[in-house]
Specification:
Elements lengths: L1 E3 L5 E3 L4 H11 L4 H8 L8 H15 L12 H4 L7
Helix pairs in contact: 1-2, 2-3
Length: 85
């Protein structure tokens, strides 16, 4: 995977087959449950949820996530910060 961060610095990261499958899944707006099903191809059921979370964390740290969907956003995010008068 090759990408540029917000500062336009280029990065390279080699992907294993499982991670490439996960990225394709998330690019298609796939849900977390579907990602866990994909990981079951390579890993035991007990290890899948924390592994999927670790992948998501690494994507967030790399700046690959633009937004999360599926859960309602708190008011402060949805409508801006609440300010005192």
């Amino acid at each position: 995977m090759i990408w540029r961060d917000a500062d336009l610095v280029s990065h390279f990261r080699a992907l294993h087959a499982e991670e490439a499958a996960l990225l394709r899944h998330f690019q298609g707006n796939g849900a977390f449950a579907g990602a866990c099903e994909i990981l079951l191809t390579w890993h035991a059921a007990k290890s899948v949820p924390p592994l999927a979370l670790n992948y998501l964390r690494s994507y967030a740290e790399a700046g690959w996530l633009m937004r999360l969907s599926g859960a309602p956003q708190p008011r402060s995010v949805r409508q801006g910060p609440i300010t005192a008068r």
